[in-house]
Amino acid sequence: xxxxxxxxxGKGHRLGALNRTSPLMLTLLGVAVVVxxxxxxxxxxLVVVVAALVTGLAAGLPPAQVLAxxxxxxxxxxxxxxxxxxxxxxxxxxxxxxxxxxxTLIGRFxxxxxxxxxxxxxxxxxxxxxxxxxxxxxxxxxxRPLIAPMAEAAAEARAGGELPETARLAIRAWAxxxxxxxxxxxxxxFVAIGSILLMVGFLASSGISLDPxxxxxxxxxxxxxxxxxxxxxxxxxxxxxxHPARGEPAA
Length: 251
Hints:
Layout lengths: L2 H24 L2 H11 L4 H15 L4 H14 L5 H14 L2 H10 L6 H17 L8 H21 L5 H23 L6 H12 L6 H31 L9
Helix pairs in contact: 2-3, 3-4, 6-8, 7-8, 7-9, 7-11, 8-9, 9-11
């Protein structure tokens, strides 16, 4: 065996390795499409679809197989889009006067107050999230059409008149924050939530075996602490609304 044969063989090995890695590198074109699409501020759904098509075609899949993969993924995960079906219904009931009805209802209770009202909603949000019912409430489902108008009406009924715009915006901000905090700290109690399963999988990859129920149990004290801390903040905010001269309502 001479040096020429060794050189030719080495060159052949290098070309074979290059040929094997080239299709793999071409599949990364989908990442480039995502980066360019988001940087150009195109429609996110369009960007993701085009990136998936580019990745499939770059991997050597025929167009029919790429479309079949799209259909299979949609069919297997169709439950993810269920909450979006509710949004048109919420828009219809809002147009029919849902916010006004909520204002009228809470305005009849002269002793109602925004702070305790939002604290009660946080309890409801945490309990439902702990049971896995994340989509039963949210910014679009409950905060905008119900909770924020009810809190504003409670503040107006107590003040005996219209609220200043700063106070109105502050109430809306606190209503949205209450929903976020309640859902964030309540969902970790549910054993099948993505964050719990992610932590279990990560720990398992590190050689630490944990049951999801163990992590869920330790999420309960955190949820209780979050409720107590945010509840105190809501009461302080409520007091500032009642006595605006002592300070502006915190947003």
